[in-house]
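Posting this for the archive.
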Amino acid sequence: MGGGRGTRLHPLTAERCKPAVPLAGKYRLVDIPISNCLHSQLNRIFVLTQFNTASLHRHIQESYKFDPFGGGFVDILSAEQTQRGDSWYQGTADAVRQNLHHFDAQEEDLILILSGDQLYQMDLSALIEQHRETESGVTIAAKAMVREQVSGLGLMRVQDDLSILEFAEKPSDPKVIEGLTLSDQLSTGLPGYPDQKYVLANMGIYCFTMRVLREALDSPYTDFGGEVIPDLLGKVEMRGFVFDQYWEDIGTVRSFFEANLSLTDDVPPFNFFDGANPVYSRARFLPASKINGMVMRRGIIAGGCIVSECELERVVIGVRAMIDRGTVFKNVVMMGGDLFENDEDRIKNRDLQRPNIGVGENCFIENAIIDKNARIGDNVRLSPEGKPDMYQSGDIIVRDGVLIVMKNGVVPDGTVV
């Protein structure tokens, strides 16, 4: 599923959909679910898209190419007008409903529905195996989380055999959440138990038997979590699949920011260095990064960067990033650039009195995301400290306590925010 507007991630989604947002210096969010599928021997993949899709389409087309003998593919299905209707996707369930005719699936085939904006590594074949062994109609991946951390997530209550008894979509009433708390048997062994109480949160990963999916979507329902799943309770066999490893729903600017910076930890919660399960992405054929006199404490630097005499602390630096001498970063995610500027480009920039792509000399930037192709001049100081949420000055926005320089944004010399 890659079709949402991504309003909580704005302005990172102003010109792209959520799954196309750059991640960890060189990837896109959509690379995570696709890589999980491929490592689980699932290679018939459809990506359902709707808003700001151009960069996502380009990335998928350039990243995922299959030989003609394996039968695999990653197909993009955009919202389209047909004889059946001319409306855009009205929700997750409606998006699947409008594309059922593309799937060429039989009644007992299985359909796995994934989100395009989550960070996790999962053997999806284990979920499918449980679904088959229990003869379930629906299996929902679930993460045990402390009650204080489940705001904005669907919650479920299960029996000891993991069959789902109750399901509530994004409840806010503490009494409802209390009623969905895990039993002692299911909580045993979870970190922090018994000092903390856990509930099972819906990860937005569903395995359907095709027959059940067709029948469920033969309805006016438009959303899986809010309508389809609650309506199926008691009608078909539904079970949870408990996932006990790292999972992050990257739905807000703050969660995106922290998920990226956590990758600089000595032992990061998500391992991009797992040689047995690499995250696949686009081959860019970039030169190695060039570092001149840099001091860095905890950071990731992608390919094709030039960093000169800077001080960087807890940073994720994306492809083709240019950072000039004397600049200091603290807690910064810089997405880099789509191209290298040449001497002719720099002369043109000087004539237009605009900075080159990248960050100029003697800047200080903290707690910030610098989006693709941003141009930040010399002697700039940027920090969200003391700024209200949704504060905006030119191409700079503060959201969730994070300062964002927008994609293609220009920050002139001497700017102080």
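The two ends are 37 Å apart (CA to CA). The first helix runs from residue 31 to 39.
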